[in-house]
Amino acid sequence: MKCENKWIIFKDSTMREGLDVPGVTLDQVQKLELLQRLAEIKVPEVEIVAPGHFDRDILSLKEMVPGKLRIKTSGLIYGYGSLWREQIKKAIGLLDRFDILMPLSDLRPPAGRAEKTSQMNDVLKFALDNGAEAGVGFPHATQVESDFLLEMCRQAVEAGAKRITLYDTNGSSDPWSVEELIGQVRAITEIQLCFHAHNDLGMATANSLAAVLAGADCLDVTVNGLGDRAGNASLEQVAVALYLKGVSHDVRLDLLPDLSRAVAEMTCVPVSQLAPIVGGFAFCQKSPSHLELPGLFEPFDPALIGAVRSVCKV
Questions:
Q1: I need a surface site. Which of 78, 90, 274, 294 has the fewest CB within 10 A?
Q2: Phi/psi at 77 (nearest 5 deg)?
Q3: Distance between CA 56 and CA 262 in Å, rounded?
């Protein structure tokens, strides 16, 4: 895989998905610190409002004085139920942009595919008519027939959506399927296309790279891969992997270890010693056959991320 001249936008979801990890909470001081660190590392956008905790998150955002933040903020609003009009009005002027969620699974509301299409168009029109920078997100995009997904994408584009996000909601997809699906959606739209990976089968990083290869412009990531169940695509893994494949982005790789440690401390969720990129053993060599030329056994020079190689003889 080589994608020279490709530019990828990262949307960090640590402050949304990360709070779905059991036992994880962030107070206002920690949220501000995380926002500052993400801005420093040059992540351009942070997803800060969860649809299931809309009022809580909007109140928290108000206390942060959004106009003074050095990073764009976004959030999610369910495109059904009785609250979407009120929530859209509250979000406008506070969030830089938001995405309307329309689950594609037949088991989630709205009931019926025609109803999903109609409801999405109504909610999106309301948001755009009120001056919002609004996109559409499709949970279960990898779990439904591609014809239905493509039709929903066409409808979203025609209705004026500014971005489409495809969710591998249960983490069951694979790189080949993701590449095919993203390619199909890319062929019918030129608006920003984002991919949201879950790591239930350990493929979130690979699936994110496949999405880029197929034409995605934007990736949802979280620090340390925090997220629901087995987590999401890891910012540090995806950022380094894309860099090594010739894909451009703004993220400062040298700040990744410090960011990882800070988030682990904030959330009380330790990073595995075996974690790629930021794990304690990532550049620790023990095998005697490796010690003469350790660089041959590493995917990149640890100096790229400000790390130092170590030797363990025990």
A1: 274
A2: -130, 130
A3: 24
